[in-house]
Q: What sequence folds into this?
């Protein structure tokens, strides 16, 4: 197996950082669009284990990445809890029902992953068989706060004011919903690990909507609960988008890796990660995905500068957020290639980095 | 006049911080909704100088704030440049045409504020007459990057990927559009000052979408150009929402005050502001607006903690973003009242702050 990712996650000295891209499966690749056109909607695709497996594997050859990530969606967990959703083309997720009261909450149920999320676990098993050890497979789930946002508001929001309102107005109800999401997500991640994923990532996409105080007091205990025991099984990444104002608090969590968005200062984050209370953390990130709109020379220079700043060791090269749908596949390849060709600044001729 | 705001802006020792709330005019007040219902849409209201003046003045008595802010919208400037917009209820702004090419840009024209934005300046003149010196009037405009986002994309966006794409793909076109916006905004702000506003605020609502590098290299020079000479006339506030990762760069700008969002660490920002290159900056902010959903006791305690952390002097008490529409007016009053009753922590009995 190409075990560069796993070696980097163990903190071993590596020849270069491993590389993958958030949202590498789906969106940008023509071969993905072909599958999608055959199957129907995004949700039809992720509920079809064979085809989900197929698009999960595409980026390995198409981009040359060092890991595959399961093609799925964070909203499968609310649905498994009893709150169905639709993905409306060019609009986003829509939940016909939402959680606003204790009786809404009481209608949710505990998740049995092999019953309620069997289609995902089947996809994992197919992927692992077809991967045949080429690269590791990353499993994932949405973090409690991010799923809470969708379950309360029912659709995307700029500031998640309704969800934040519930935190203040209904602390007990909020906490109960967060606990229910945490329990469901925990069993889901353990089931993914049972099925064979090599590492897992938790996406807290809307972490940035909360003040540090609110996140630390109300969300972090659930994160701690969710992560407890997980890292004994596989490496765990926490990616809290927009949450660099509490990165130091996230660094106290029992996780292997902190994901960085493109707003986070790299040298500051490295210093923080090296001095994390439970020992050094790996960092994953964080090229501004909009850099991939630039020409390949710029992509290369910016990627090399990123690694200069993050360092080679305990680094997983990635973007600071998912690939945008209109980024040309060639530009994704230029990013991956630039990581593979990385040479430390001291050994680099200045003319090659411009 | 209640000149507390102006004294605080001059860095004088004050008895307590002055207080106002972003979006205090409009949205939450029943008396605003009554005017709005009579006039029609939001845009009809802001284009009606008499009624815009009326809703600008309402918060002075309704909330007891120390300043009025002009009731208007940042998108009046693109429209004055030749790019009209609609405000669609519960959906947001929509521009029928956008700027994607040089020929699109060439269709824009220079702004003569007394011709193209006369309705705003008329509102300013009416407000100042009716204010009769009670409190200062704050003028405002959108910052170049934020207006660029709307003019390129034509509507709101989660990540402004199209606008950021243009920065990378069309650097010369982007720069020309930013320069045109800057010129229009500069003449607009000077016209507001000519009409009598006592201070101005620049809203960079989408600053957070950019990496520090991109903001510093591509946007900051236009901010510098825009602000040049403004501060000689009135105090100037720069509020870059989500931009705390380049607050140190904003502190180099010729402005009086830095606005803080609720994600920004207060003690860190105070230290940065005190050591700004051109001399100490005033700080404005930054209570999480969602705190105003809590009970008045919590609002009071959180407001006092905010002032403890920001300090009394060179501080303007405000929220970290605009009031949300569903925040009860009583809770806005509780915030304003808490600022007025502020007592330093050392002089406070612990029982009153809980």
A:
């Amino acid at each position: 197996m190409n075990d560069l990712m796993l070696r980097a996650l163990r903190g071993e000295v590596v020849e270069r950082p491993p590389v993958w891209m958030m949202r590498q499966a789906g969106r940008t690749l023509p071969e993905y669009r072909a599958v999608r056109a055959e199957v129907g909607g995004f949700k039809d695709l992720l509920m079809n284990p064979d085809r989900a497996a197929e698009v999960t594997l595409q980026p390995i050859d198409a981009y040359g990445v060092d890991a595959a990530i399961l093609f799925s969606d964070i909203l499968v967990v609310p649905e498994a809890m009893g709150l169905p959703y639709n993905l409306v083309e060019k609009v986003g997720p829509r939940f016909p029902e939402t959680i606003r009261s204790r009786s809404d909450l009481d209608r949710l149920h505990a998740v049995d992953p092999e019953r309620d999320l069997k289609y995902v676990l089947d996809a994992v098993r197919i992927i692992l068989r077809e991967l045949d050890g080429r690269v590791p497979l990353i499993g994932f789930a949405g973090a409690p706060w991010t799923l809470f946002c969708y379950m309360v508001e029912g659709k995307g929001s700029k500031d998640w004011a309704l969800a934040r309102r519930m935190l203040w107005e209904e602390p007990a109800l909020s906490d109960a919903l967060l606990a229910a999401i945490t329990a469901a997500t925990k069993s889901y991640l353990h089931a993914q690990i049972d099925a064979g994923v090599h590492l897992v990532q938790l996406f807290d996409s809307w972490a940035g909507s909360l003040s540090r105080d609110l996140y630390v007091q109300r969300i972090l205990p659930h994160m701690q609960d969710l992560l407890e025991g997980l890292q004994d099984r596989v490496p765990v990444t926490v990616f809290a988008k927009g949450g660099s104002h509490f990165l130091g608090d996230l660094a106290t969590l029992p996780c292997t890796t902190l994901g960085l968005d493109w707003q986070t200062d790299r040298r500051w984050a490295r210093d923080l990660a090296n001095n994390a209370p439970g020992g050094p953390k790996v960092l994953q990130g964080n090229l501004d995905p909009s850099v991939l709109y630039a020409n390949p020379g710029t992509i290369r220079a910016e990627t090399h500068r990123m690694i200069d700043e993050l360092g080679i060791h305990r680094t997983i090269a990635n973007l600071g957020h998912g690939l945008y749908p209109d980024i040309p596949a060639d530009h994704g390849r230029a990013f991956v290639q630039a990581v593979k060709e990385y040479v430390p600044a001291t050994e680099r001729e200045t003319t090659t980095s411009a």
